[in-house]
């Protein structure tokens, strides 16, 4: 690995810890499917599409009914780990009736969580 590739593979260490949050739905709410999930991110952090290597930016990953993945590796891509590499800040998700947990995790340009993870508190919703 060259010095340049080492630098490009190292997650950003932001000047201030970032905070992601779920704007909607609210924790504890009862909703109908499809569920509109809106993503929030507190300054000084910003959203940038996957592949954009800028400090204090990243793109959202929505974790559904799962625990946090290995924070040293790219976020898996499957039904429980939804990627929003286009810089999207909301999505509509089809969920089965019952209780579900949702959590946001910001990934860098290569889908790797930041050295100091930028994530939301998990929320629990009930789908009718």
Key terms:
single chain, about 130 residues, mainly beta, Immunoglobulin-like, globular, disordered N terminus
Polypeptide structure, described:
Strands 2, 4, 5, 6, 8 and 9 form a 6-stranded mixed β-sheet that branches. The chain is built from 1 helix and 9 strands, in the order αβββββββββ. By secondary structure, the chain is mainly beta. It has a single domain (3-127), classed as Immunoglobulins (Immunoglobulin-like), CATH 2.60.40. The protein has one helix at 3-9, and strands at residues 20-24, 30-31, 35-41, 46-47, 57-64, 81-83, 90-93, 98-107, 123-127.
Which structural class matches the secondary elements?
mainly beta
Order of helices and strands: HEEEEEEEEE
> What proportion of the residues form beta strands (DSSP E)?
35-45%
The name of the CATH superfamily reads Immunoglobulins
CATH architecture label? Sandwich
* CATH overall fold name: Immunoglobulin-like
Number of helical stretches of at least 4 residues? 1
User: How many individual domains?
Assistant: 1
Q: Oligomerization state of this entry?
A: single chain
Radius of gyration: 15 Å
Beta strand count: 9
Q: What is the overall pLDDT average?
A: 90
Span between termini:
51 Å
Short description:
By secondary structure, the chain is mainly beta. The chain has one helix spanning about 5-10; strands at about 20-25, 30, 35-40, 45, 55-65, 80-85, 90-95, 100-105, 125. About 5% of the residues lie in helices and about 35% in strands.
